[in-house]
Structure formats: structure tokens, C-alpha cells
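Researcher: Good morning. I'm working through a list of sequences from a screen, and I'd like to move beyond sequence-only analysis. For each chain I'm collecting a predicted structure so we can compare shapes side by side. This is the next one on the list. No need for commentary yet; just the structure.
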Amino acid sequence: MSRKLPLALLFLSVLLLALLTGFRPFYLLLYMGSGMLALGYAWAWLQTRRLDVRVQMLSSRPEVGKPFYFKAAIYEKIGIPRLELYGRASIGQVHTEEEQLSLRPKGASGWTGTAWWQTRGLHSFGSLTIVGHDPLGLVRVERQLGDSRPVVVYPATVQISAPSFPGQAVGNGGAGGVGGIGPSRAYTTPATVREYLPGDRVSNIHWVSTARTGQLMAKQFQEVESVDLWLLLDMQEEAQTGEGPTGTEEYIVSIAA
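Model: Good morning. C-alpha cells for this chain:
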């Protein structure tokens, strides 16, 4: 249970006793309590001011259901110690657990954390929620710091073995495939550059390398085989059932991925 409710009940009880009885020590308790709360709020508020935060994404391909790693750092800018400071990362609609921080004057502190994305799609990432407390733990002040930036979260995937498609011949790169598997085809793609030789096409000249080396350079090509695989999903709303991670939409997206 939050501490605010017991404190509010205690404050109201003392206030009622003071008004009903006129006993001066009750008023003294009210003044002292109000002063402590005011000082505590000022302390907690100061703990969250003049800070610089940096949040770095350590996972290059965030995915639903898999750990997402990040590194957070906080820098103190005005030269006062921060003793009752906590921080948590805001990752989309998910907040990580609070980490207690201790900042020396003009110092830095940070932590490496782990979180899990709950839904795929475009999310925001990069901000920290900084929480300041008074020494007695009676007052709590929160502040959002850092610039959020968009990050694409990919669907949940599972590891599967290499598939064997109907009509795929062994050793011919899948030539003659049927259904969604197109036949294997070869095409050429630039692989490197070499000196220009008589008979080379003018269109094959690599002008950037020519300008850098001072002599004509030509692109050299290599053959690459490829097979096209098309997966078509029925994303019409009427064709789906269920919601969230257990809905058919998330299942078919994960299967395709």
C-alpha cells in the first residue's frame, strides 16, 4: 500500500484533534509535519534537476518475446550529490524496475538492463524516468528525461530446420519449384573493380575508383543464384479471431517471420 494514504490519514487525525481540543501540541505537530513534508519535497525535487541522461540500445534487432538489452547513463551537471535517486527506462508502454543510483558531484552513474517487448510494430525508446526521494522516504518526485526515438520491434520468431519445398530438386538450387517458389535464376551483380581492359563496355567503368586512382577502372561482375519465396497473409480483420498475443493475427505473422 502506498505511503500517501497512511500519511494523509495521520495528518487529518491530528488536524481534527487540534480543532476539536484546541490542544497546542497538536498544532505544533501539524506545523512540524508540514515543514518536514515541504523540505522533503524540495529535496526530492532537487534530486531530479540538472541531469543529463543517455540511453543506448544494445540489441540491434529487437523482437517480441526475446530479451532486449540497453545501457543507461546519468550525468550530474551542477555539482551536488544525489543520494536518493532512482531510475527506470521507458520502453514503449513497458517500464523496467527501478535502479538505485548514487551520483557524486559532476559524476556519472548507470546500469545495463533487460526488458521484453510485448507487441510488435513501431515503438518509442530512449527516455528515462528519474525518481527522487527525501531522506525519510515520505515524498516521491518523478521526472521524464531524455529524447525518445522510434524503434521497430519485429514479430516473434522460432528456430526451424531448413524446409524442403514441393518440386525442389536436390543440388539444382530449387529449379522448377512450384507454388510460391519461383525457379532458380542467375543474375550478375558488381563484386569488385579492376583495371579497364580494351573491349570493356563504357557503362562498366567505375568512375569513383577512376577518379581516386587516376586511371580507368571497370566493375567486375559475378553470377548469383536466387530463389524468390512469396508468403501472402490474409490480414483482413474479418478473417481474424482473438486479440493480443493469442490472436490469429499474431500467430500468422510469427509463422511468416
